[in-house]
Structure formats: C-alpha cells, structure tokens
Amino acid sequence: MTGKHTDRAARIISRCRQIATCTEVPGEITRLFLTPPMHEVHALLRDWMEAAGMTVRIDAIGNLRGFWPGLVPGSPRLLIGSHLDTVPNAGAFDGILGVVLGVTIVEELGGDLLPFAIEVIGFSEEEGVRFNKPFLGSLALVGKLDADTLARTDRNGVSVRQAIDDYGLDPTPLPAATLAGGAFAYLEIHIEQGPVLESEDTALGIVEALVGQTRMELIFTGQANHAGTTPMHLRHDAIAAVAEWIVAVEAYASSHQPLVATVGRIEAAPGAGNVIAGHVTASLDLRHADDNARRASVTAVLQLAEKAATRRGVHVTSAPQLEQSAVPLDPHLTAVLCRAAAQACHPTRRMTSGAGHDAMILAPTIPSAMLFLRSPGGLSHHPDETVLPQDVEAAIATAMEFLAQLRDDRTNPKDGHA
Ligand code: GLV
Ligand code: MN
Ligand code: MN
Question: By the 8 A CB rule, do 60 and 171 touch?
C-alpha cells in the first residue's frame, strides 16, 4: 500500500470509531433507531459529506442522504449505503463502514463528475431492535413502510410515528413514499460478520444472494404461583416450557443445517426469584437460503413450542414480525463488481449472506450488488468486531474500479445493461 492509500484506510477506520462514540449507553456502542445519539451521527456525517461537496438532507424516516451530482442535471443515480443503527453493545463497523466508505468514494473522485450522480445513504434503521422489525429505513425508501409498521410501539409505548416526530421529522409523507425515479444501481459494502473469508485468507467477498429469514415473537402463558408452596407436579411454569423449547430449537436446527435458528431474547414475568413465571415472551429468528425449507422449519419449530408448553399446561401463541424471502442480487451488477475487484488485483470469493442487509429490501426494486470485507475472528454484533486496514484499502480500490466500470458502461453501452 502506498502512503496515500494507508492514509485513506486509516481515515475510514478512525471515522467509524469516532461514530462509535455516539451511543445511548456510555462504555458500549448501543444506538437504536432515532435515539438521541443519532443526531450526533447525522452531524458528523453531514460535515464530512458537505466538506466533500455533497448536498445533504435527512428524509422522513431519518435516512441521511448525501447527493453528488452527475455530469448533467437529472443524471441517473448510483446509490451507495448501509445502516447507521446498531444492536445493543455492538461493534464499530457493522453498517457504518459502508456509509463512511460511500463518503470516501465521493472524496476520492476529487471533484470529478461522472455520467451518473451518486447518492450516499445512511439508513436510519436496519437491525430491528427498537421496534422488533428490521429494515425500516430501506423499506421507507422503496415505499414499503405500511401504516401498521408506523403504529408499532417500542418497550416504552412510543410508536414509530411518534419516534419520528420526537426526532424532529415529519412522518406524514411516509406511507406514500417511493424512491424518486432515476436510481439505476445500489452498492452496499459491509463486513462479512462471519468466518468464511478469514478461513480462506481472502480479503473480499462478492455476495450473490441473501438468505431468507423469519422473525416471530412467542408468548408462553402459564400460571404464576408461589415457588415454595407449589409442588412440582402442580405447576404451569412458563419459563420451564420456554427452556425446553429453546434446547429443542437448537437441536432441530443442528440436525437441519444450513438452517440456523436463534432464540436471542426472553422476558419473564413477574420476574422474581421466588415466583414461578406465569408469562414469558421469546423471540425466534430462523434463516435458510431455501424459502420452502425455511417455511417447513418454522412449522416444525412452532410444533416443538406447542409440545413443550402442552405437557406443562402452558398456553403458547405466536406473532409474525418478519417474513423475508431469500433475495438474489443482480447478476450483471455482481459481475461488474467481480471485474472491478480483479482489475484492482484483489481476489474475491462468491458467497451467500446469512445476515440481512438493506440490499435485501432494495434489490427487488433496484439492481443491487454487495461487497463483503473479511471479519477478523469471524466476530460481529460484538464490541471486538473489527476490520483490517489492508482490507478496507482493498474495498475502496475495488469500489473506485466499480465506478470506473459503470462509467465506461454508461459512456459506451454494449449490451443494454448500463
Ligand atoms: C442484521 O444484522 C441481521 O442479519 O440480523
Ligand atoms: Mn447487524
Ligand atoms: Mn449490518
């Protein structure tokens, strides 16, 4: 790497770490959808974008959007982006790396105008933590944020609509929002969040498809009662039912790989050591590349819940939160990205993403491509999540080649794809 290139990778990493200081919880990185630290994130990114000559606005769902014009007014737009929110106690790179890289790409143009405009988007919500529903930012961008979603409430009873209003934005136009015409492609650059690239000693991955996912909430209702006086055979213990079910889910997924299934959150009430739990809510996150296999697994896993509950006299209900089909990315744009990496002399591996990304929501509307960077230790959704400077450099070099290929395609269209 030359000094200039070492500098740009170091600057990207240091900006991600600076954004990581914008948090709801001192000492960790926790930044949910439209919580107060998002104002600081917006301010930092706005400064960097404006310094690069971009025009910046925040849309009605809180997506930060920086615009770099094309050669002529009304030029088609290349979207580059990822998300600004985090899971609780997150790392510093999931999502934000793709946004900071987007800003750097525009900086690296050095003022050049291309035959297309660039819009760098920091999506306001992707993780689904605050409202138990992911992708709010990208759903709004493609006009798929429905009134039911706007009415959802967080654990404090604040609705999505209210959260938008509290942040100082106007939610009124959202149900009718659609991406204004002219976006011809979307590029998302993201950490892999898994161990595959590292295990193969490869810096970059090209994503061909993203697996489908189902997210649900299950409610187990038993009977709260005294922990000292209720004999074991007369209990209706909702926590015991959930515990048996969680272990059964783990066993089921282990014997049906590549299925992955996770119960990542449980909440018991009344929540005292000397009271049998009468009420438990539990999350279910289930993913598979094959949509039919995923749907069959959901049915099987719900039957396991019924079984664990019934034998204790516990009642169980389930509520769907997300039903997202597997999504292929655009073959032509993906081929352009592969060529770009080869041109930049970086070997890549083609892969499927087990994680969800905003590209999943955009891909049915806008041709989309994704570039992954190796995740050291395969670690993500964890404070130790990191990136290697040489991989960041490989990503930015590939992205600049990608732009060059798109420019050539659009200047000399050969096959009607440009
Ligand atoms: C997003 O990080 C997801 O895949 O859950
Ligand atoms: Mn994430
Ligand atoms: Mn992410």
Answer: yes
CB atoms within 10 A of CB 384: 10
Task: List CB contacts of 229: < 8 A, sequence separation 6 or more.
Answer: none
Instruction: Give residue-wise pLDDT tens across range 295-346.
Output: 999 999 999 999 999 999 999 999 999 999 999 999 999 999 999 999 999 9
- Which ligand is in closest contact with the Cα of 189? 3
What count of residues does the chain have? 418
- Are 189 and 370 spatial neighbours (Cβ–Cβ below 8 Å)? yes
- Residue 359 CA, ligand 2 centroid: distance in Å: 13
User: 3-class DSSP state for residue 291?
Assistant: helix
Among 96, 135, 193, name the best residue to mutate to test ligand 1's pocket (greatest count of ligand atoms within 8 A of Cβ): 193
Q: For residue 16, what are the contacts with CB-CB under 8 A and spacing of at least 6? A: 92, 93, 96, 97, 100
* Residues, CB within 5 angstroms of ligand 3 (ion): 94-95
The span from the CA of 379 to the CA of 195, in Å, is: 7
Nearest alpha carbon, ligand 1 atom 1: 356
How many CA atoms within 13 Å lie on the side-chain side of 45? Answer: 35
For the ranges 175-184, 200-209, 268-277, 289-298, which has the lowest average pLDDT? 175-184
The answer to whether residues 216 and 320 touch, using CB atoms and an 8 Å cutoff, is yes
Pocket perturbation via mutation, ligand 1, pick of 93, 381, 382, 385 by most ligand atoms within 8 A of CB: 381
Terminal alpha carbon distance of the chain: 32
What is the share, in percent, of the chain residues with pLDDT greater than 70?
96
The reply to whether ligand 1 has any atom less than 6 angstroms from the CB of 187 is: no
**CB of 29 shorter than 6 A to ligand 1:** no
Can you tell me whether residue 73 is helix, strand or coil? coil
